[in-house]
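quick q for whoever's on today - can somebody do inverse folding on this one?? i tried earlier but teh output was garbage lol. tokens:
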């Protein structure tokens, strides 16, 4: 059985370090980290996870959009492992929407993100994959990609008034937002 890892919390040095490229995606070590990420993410109400969040300094993310109590309107998509991911905006159009983070519990904030992006990454076998993401999945990808760059979503907030306690967010916005 795979261990569920502790999620690094804001202030942990690993969350502020640029993650390292994965040289051998199919290696047993990489596969072990991915298995721990899947187990950890499955134990939460999150929709994505980056390796630094389980204190692994590697460029690996999992996007697993699904409706949860934290994100009731999230679209359902197959969990996808992305190793050494990169992205490019398809346009300069940005949208502000609410985000939370397993590494920053208890808060939500309005964060501007590109509406549509192209992504490229390696899968668990090391094959190069590419895709286009729009709206919520694009937002989740950009959020997780920030973790690989040593950033958290609060770094992108434009105004401190856009930061809410999660309890207040749910009081004011439950049922009115997609993120």
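ok took a stab at it. sequence:
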């Amino acid at each position: 059985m795979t261990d569920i890892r502790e999620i690094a919390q804001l202030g942990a040095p690993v969350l502020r370090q640029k993650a390292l490229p994965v040289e051998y995606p199919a290696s047993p070590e990489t596969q072990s980290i991915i298995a721990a990420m899947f187990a950890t993410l499955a134990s939460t109400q999150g929709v994505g996870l980056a390796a630094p969040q389980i204190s692994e300094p590697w460029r690996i993310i999992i996007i697993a959009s699904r409706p949860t109590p934290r994100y009731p309107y999230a679209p359902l998509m197959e969990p996808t492992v992305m190793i050494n991911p990169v992205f490019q905006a398809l346009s300069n159009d940005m949208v502000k929407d609410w985000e939370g983070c397993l590494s920053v519990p208890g808060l939500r904030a309005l964060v501007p993100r590109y509406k549509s992006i192209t992504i490229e990454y390696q899968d668990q076998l090391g094959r190069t994959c590419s895709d286009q993401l729009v709206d919520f999945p694009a937002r989740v990808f950009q959020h997780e990609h920030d973790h690989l760059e040593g950033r958290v979503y609060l770094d992108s907030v434009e105004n401190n008034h856009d930061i809410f306690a999660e309890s207040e967010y749910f009081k004011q916005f439950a049922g009115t937002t997609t993120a």
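fwiw The beta strands are 48-50, 60-63, 80-89, 94-101, 104-114, 116-122, 128-134, 163-165. also The chain has one domain: 13-173. so keep that in mind when u check it
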